[in-house]
Amino acid sequence: MFTVVIEPDEDAYHAYVPALPGCHTFGATVDEALRHIQEAIALYIDGLVANNQPVPVEPDTLLVTRVPAAV
After folding, report:
1. What is the pTM of this model?
2. Which CATH class, in words, describes the domain spanning 1-71?
């Protein structure tokens, strides 16, 4: 299981997996972005396995927060 971040983009939704560098996709809706990122994760992991690379394991504890910043 991997954490997925979905952010609104200009005309779509950008989805990515922080634990899998370069694993990004887009969708016209949140549901579509989720479907696409599931496919992207599967392809990413297949590529790792095919190249005898370790599959990253996400830590059980993950903190996502917002911090104030001077603008």
Report:
1. 0.84
2. alpha beta
Rounded distance, CA 20 to CA 34, Å?
Answer: 15
CA geometry: angle 6, 56, 67, nearest 5 deg: 45
What are the extents of the domains in the chain?
1-71
Per-residue pLDDT of the chain (71 residues; tens, 9 = 90+): 899 999 999 899 999 999 999 999 999 999 999 999 999 999 999 999 999 999 999 888 778 888 999 98
Residue 45 burial (CB < 10 Å; 0-12/13-18/19+)? Answer: middle
